């Protein structure tokens, strides 16, 4: 098990999206066996989730956290314990002892609905129907030894309002229901229409926790959980419009290998992070490669697909 803590001079740093370092703890049999410091570069809120996934982190302990970051971390399968303060070593010990309780989303995030690479001059997408070249772009793939991973990026377009990390703020309710605005925990299994499984919290032995009804999850999932009872199970079918949207050809980029540092080592099917001209990192998948070019797909892997979920609501925090 690997735990990451937002880190600043031995203390839990209170703003997840602004943290410059994480302290990583390797845990075996409930005990800390080693620790190290991981720099975050200048990645923004959602991009930091990719940094932690690359480091094989299972659990994040932090101070303040926004909804966009929470959703990104959940999609990466990373458990979040927010609201922690004080010494990082003691925070991890308290977590391992079962004494840390997550405060959920406690940071009022601006630009929650921002999707990386959209609406910006990024050099990675097809804007206005005209393909742009990827000159100057770097890729932060999971084997970062030979790749420009974009450590000089400026951060996310989203931001955290002044003073937001000092305590909870009310979030806007998008979907009404008995659980709206409350922190919930669910177990789920997701399958495609052909029966193949694409995700399951059971496989990670870790329930998914989020604030219901505020848009942290895909709409079709959120609309159901927001009105479920604890202990209730439901099976649902979600069309693309209420899942990850329709497939968008404009999010496909064909770039010259010579213009993307490190791309010569990429493999088809590999998930990587690209950095746009504004310094933001965003995920893509390598879908094709020739001796001269590489094709990146910025669509979510489940874009254009109908999804099925079996959901059980485990807990609602009042």
What structural keywords apply?
single chain, 318 residues, mainly beta, Nucleotidyltransferase, domain 5, Chitinase A, domain 3, 2 domains, 6-stranded mixed sheet, 5-stranded antiparallel sheet, 5 helices, 19 strands, 12% helix, globular
Task: Offer a quick outline of the entry.
12% of the residues lie in helices and 31% in strands. With 318 residues, it is mainly beta.
Provide the number of structural domains: 2
CATH class of the largest domain: Alpha Beta
Distance between the termini: 30 Å
Number of strands: 19
Category by helix and strand content: mainly beta
- In round numbers, the mean pLDDT is 77
How many helices in DSSP terms? 5
Unreliable runs, pLDDT <50, ≥5 residues?
A: 108-170
CATH architecture of the largest domain: Roll
- Approximate helicity band: 10-25%
Question: Which of globular, elongated, flat, extended, rod-shaped describes the shape?
Answer: globular
SSE run: EEEEHEHEHEEEEEEHEHEEEEEE
The main sheet comes to: 6 strands, mixed
- Strand content range: 25-35%
Q: Say what the CATH topology of the largest domain is.
A: Chitinase A, domain 3
What's the alpha carbon Rg, rounded to whole Å?
Answer: 20 Å
Account of the 3D structure:
By secondary structure, this protein is mostly beta strands. It has two domains: 2-96, Nucleotidyltransferase, domain 5 (2-Layer Sandwich), CATH 3.30.420.130; 121-154 and 163-318, Chitinase A, domain 3, CATH 3.10.50. The protein has five helices and 19 strands. The strands form five sheets. Strands 1, 2, 3, 4, 5 and 6 form a six-stranded mixed β-sheet that branches. Helix 1 runs parallel beside helix 2. The chain is globular. The two termini are 30 Å apart. Residues 108-170 have low confidence and may be disordered.
